[in-house]
Design a protein that fits this description.
SCP2_sterol-bd_dom, SCP2_sterol-bd_dom_sf, globular, Nonspecific Lipid-transfer Protein, Chain A, alpha/beta, about 140 residues, 5 helices, SCP2 domain-containing protein, six-stranded mixed β-sheet
């Protein structure tokens, strides 16, 4: 089984047990791990189609209290999700607390509202950040 984000298909850069990548201090990182695991089975043509459609490199800074976990969603070059900072300049750097990210991933919260209320901070291209919100919303029922 794998998740399809309206043909967003991404893989992980590492083949190690991704459950080890979940940050125990920030449980919502499991969403990113699950996406990476499930989407790593994508065909090359589907991955390329989504890269062409999205054309963005996102760096997510998930926070809970004093803890932070940084993840990269590369839908610009390679079509992959990995733990850590972007290897090249991110188009949008998003800083978000764990509860807000959980709400976005479950489809219970709108990214624009989170941004307007200061729960989501964006450096870089705000319009690209809206694409990520759409990705999460489309598949909230599949997580």
């Amino acid at each position: 089984m794998y998740l399809v984000f309206k043909h967003i298909l991404v893989g992980l850069t590492e083949t190690s047990n991704m459950s080890e990548k979940i940050d125990e201090n920030i449980p919502s990182t499991a969403v990113l791990v699950k996406l990476g695991e499930n989407l790593s089975q994508a065909t090359e043509s589907d991955r390329k189609a989504q890269i062409k459609k999205t054309n963005a490199l996102f760096e997510l800074h998930l926070k809970k209290g004093s803890n932070e976990s940084v993840w990269t969603i590369d839908l610009k070059d390679k079509g992959q999700i990995y733990k850590g900072q972007a290897k090249s300049k991110a188009d949008a750097i998003l800083t978000i607390d764990e509860e807000t990210f959980k709400g976005l991933s479950e489809g219970k919260l709108n990214g624009q509202k989170a941004f307007m209320t200061g729960k989501l901070k964006v450096k870089g291209n705000m319009m690209l950040a809206t694409k990520l919100d759409g990705i999460l919303k489309q598949n909230s029922s599949k997580l």
